[in-house]
Amino acid sequence: MRSQIKLFIEGHMKRSVVPFLLSLSLLLAACGGNRLPTTFDVTMSDYKFTPDAITVPAGETITLNVTNKGFVSHKFVIFKLGTTAGKSFGNEDAANIYWAFEVLPGHADSDSFTAPSEPGEYFVTCAILGHLEAGMKGKLIVVAENGGAK
C-alpha cells in the first residue's frame, strides 16, 4: 500500500510540476528582460546633446531628466516623423514640432511625453537660434515593440 501511495504522489507531482514550470517560464518570458528603458538622462551643453540618440518604445510614456551644463538656454525639440529644420531652425518649423522642452543654463529638470506611435527616426535639435548650425542635433528612434530594436 505504501508503494502505491508513493507512486501516486510521485506521479501527481510530476504531472503538476511540469505545467507549473512551463507556466512560470512563459510568464517570465512575457515580462521580458529586454524591455527598452522609458526614462533617460540627457545632458545639454554648448552645443550638443549627450546622448545624441535615444531609442524608445512606440506609444510609451517617456521621461527625460535633462541637465543643462551650458552657459545658455537649450530647448530639446523632437520633430514629427519625416520632418527636419533643414540648415537652421526658424519660425516656419513650429508646425513640425512633436514635443519641446527648454532648460535654463545651469539647471536640471524633468518632463514626460508620449512617444510617437509610428516607428522611425525622428529629428531632434535645439530650437535656440544658431544652435542647430553649431551642430546641436540628434535623433529619437522609435521602435514598434518594447522588447528592443529589431
Structure report:
- Helix content is 20%, strand content 38%.
- The chain has 150 residues and is an alpha+beta fold.
- It has two domains: 31 residues; 105 residues, Immunoglobulin-like.
- Strand 1 and strand 2 form a beta hairpin.
- It is elongated, with a radius of gyration of 24 Å.
- 23% of the residues are buried.
Task: Name the poorly predicted regions.
Answer: 17-30
Output mean pLDDT.
85
Percentage of residues in strands: 35-45%
Q: Overall 3D geometry?
A: elongated
Residues in helices, as a percent range: 10-25%
Give, in spatial order, the strands making up the sheet with the most strands: 3-9-8-5-6
Known CATH architecture of the largest domain: Sandwich
Largest sheet: 5 strands, mixed
**What's the total count of β strands?**
9
CATH fold field value of the largest domain: Immunoglobulin-like
Q: Secondary-structure element sequence?
A: HEEEEEEEEE
Using the coordinates above, name the CATH class of the largest domain.
Answer: Mainly Beta
Q: Count the domains.
A: 2
